[in-house]
User: Fold this.
Amino acid sequence: MADDANERVMDGRTWADFCDALKRAGDVVLREGSPADAFERAEGFRYLSRLTRVALESYVEFADPRHPVLRRPAHETVKIGADNPDNYYQSTALSGEYEYRIRGQRGTIHYLGLGTYIGHYGSGGRMGQSGYIEAADLKIDADGGFEIILSCDQKQGSNWLRMEPDTSSLIVRQTYQDRSREQIARLEIERIGSDGPPEPLSPGFLDAGLRTAAAYVAGTSSLFCDWSESFHERINELPPLDPAIATAAHGDPHIQYYHGYWELGQGQALVIEATPPRCDYWNFQLNNHWMESLDYRYHRIDVNHHGAHYEDDGSIRLVVAHEDPGHPNWLDTAGHSRGTMCLRWIRADEHPQPSTRVVPLEALRG
Assistant:
């Protein structure tokens, strides 16, 4: 296999195959169920460029499980699968062949969850979660410090995050309730028994990494476009997502998700009403057709349990519209006429079904 990788690098097939695979991934933007206007197609192709960027970081630059590096796989300019604007995501490559240690300082972030996962979008094999632990489950010292051991065999007397032999990644979700006041947890990870710096790049590593990166771009875009098209069957509704589907897609096991597709004309507003259950956190957000969160740097496209306005009876009324009708829970469509949306509760006592209705915007003014 090493000789084959050497030949592929030497004659350029490694790079040519990568480029050809990326070209084929563009078909998802052009397929029948995708939007047929220039604005949304431009967003679709930008989406693929963003996926390519994170795929190269994940499977070439930081792909060695012997030398794990925590990096940000989703953020303000890389958005995947209804990424939560309140989240500070981190990830690293792992292998069930090794054991790892995380050292951390808790900080003041509202929610901290760490999960080990199997497979990746586009891998074509088993996908799922192999272990999960939250800050509430951790033994933390008086100064806010903690350690977590990641291994296949349980470690008694320590914070332990379970792995399986085919575990391939760690995903960290740090969730703000008030970004202006909270400090994220500071985390470092090391492989136990690490024996020096990484080896120089090998042709085999690059060949495999580019192949996996291209598969990730194609697999991720196809998966979430499939989701988006399925949500489109019930426009302006918010049905619950099957928890098994969420877990297989590397979701947080303590979250109940509601996903839907919104579509509004000028002068229309989508009103979403619910009485949030007792829970650690909830939020609602708007995404585009490609399931990227809308640009929360410049628009109010999401609201959570801390920042929402509540009615006297504890219920909430959220308003999605192109213009501000003067409602305290108005969410800005940021120049979009349609897209997907997501409501999530974390560790909720119950899972009430939100109601939705489209009304004239004028009916909400004042």
Notes: The mean pLDDT is 96.
